[in-house]
Write a structure and sequence with these properties.
The protein folds into two domains: 4-122 and 174-196, BirA Bifunctional Protein, domain 2 (2-Layer Sandwich); 128-169, no CATH class. The protein starts with a strand and ends in a 12-residue tail after the last helix. Helices cover 18% and strands 42% of the residues. The chain is an alpha+beta fold. It is globular and about 50 Å long.
Length: 208
C-alpha cells in the first residue's frame, strides 16, 4: 500500500475530515492519511472526547478502500492496536492491547483507535450501445407513406420520420465505493500534569 499524507495545523477530528472528503466525492486514495497537529473535537467510543493540544500527540486517520462488511471493522481495529503495541514495545514501553480499541500501559491509556465503515454511491449513465465505442443518443423510426399505387406514385412517396431520444439520455447504474477509516490517537509528548487532568488514567511516550 502506498501512503499519501496530508498535514493540517488544526482539525476538529481527523476521522470527520476523512469522512467528509470521501462522502463529498473528493479523491480519497487507498492509503490516504490525514494528520492534525491539533485536534479540537476528536471522539472515541461511547462519545468520549479525544482532544489533543498543538504538537502534543499524534492524531491521524487512514483510509482503506475495501469491500469488507461492517463485521470486519472490529478485526481491523484490533489489528491496528496490535501494530501500535508492537511499535511501543519496540522502543521499550511495556504496553498491552485492551479489547476492543485501546492500548494501555499499566492500566493507563496511551493510544485509542476508532474505526468506521463508509460507503458512497456513484451514479454513472449507461447508454444502449450500437457498436463498440459508439453511443446511441437517439433512435429514428421511419415509414413510407404511399397514398396511390402505380409506377408514378413511387416518385410521390413521402418519408415520415419520428425521432425519439433514449429515455433520460440513458439509464443510471449505482456504483458503490466502500472503505474503512481507521482513526488513531497516540499520546506522545503529553506531560504528567496534562495526563492527570484527563477524566481517566492516561500516559504518554514522554511519561514512560
Amino acid at each position: 500500500m502506498d501512503f499519501h499524507i496530508e498535514w493540517f495545523d488544526r482539525l476538529a477530528s481527523t476521522n470527520i475530515a476523512m469522512r467528509d472528503r470521501f462522502s463529498q466525492g473528493l479523491e480519497t486514495r487507498n492509503g490516504q492519511i490525514i494528520v492534525a497537529r491539533e485536534q479540537t473535537a476528536g471522539r472515541g467510543r461511547q462519545a468520549r472526547k479525544w482532544l489533543s493540544a498543538p504538537g502534543q500527540n499524534l492524531c491521524f486517520s487512514l483510509f482503506i478502500q475495501t469491500e469488507a462488511e461492517l463485521m470486519a471493522v472490529p478485526s481491523i481495529t484490533m489489528a491496528t492496536a496490535l501494530a501500535v503495541n508492537d511499535l511501543l514495545r519496540g522502543i521499550g514501553i511495556l504496553s498491552a492491547p485492551k479489547w476492543p480499541n485501546d492500548v494501555l500501559v499499566d492500566g493507563r491509556k496511551i493510544c485509542g483507535i476508532l474505526s468506521e465503515r463508509v460507503e458512497r454511491k456513484n451514479n454513472r449513465k449507461r447508454f444502449p450501445s450500437l457498436h463498440s465505442g459508439e453511443t446511441l443518443l437517439h433512435q429514428t423510426k421511419c415509414r413510407i407513406a404511399s397514398p396511390t399505387s402505380g409506377r408514378k406514385a413511387i416518385r410521390r412517396q413521402s418519408l415520415t420520420c419520428e425521432k425519439s431520444s433514449a429515455a433520460g439520455g440513458g439509464t443510471k447504474d449505482e456504483l458503490v465505493t466502500t472503505g474503512i477509516i481507521v482513526g488513531i490517537g497516540l499520546n506522545v509528548n503529553m506531560a504528567s500534569k496534562e495526563a492527570e487532568a484527563i477524566d481517566r488514567p492516561a500516559t504518554s511516550i514522554r511519561i514512560e
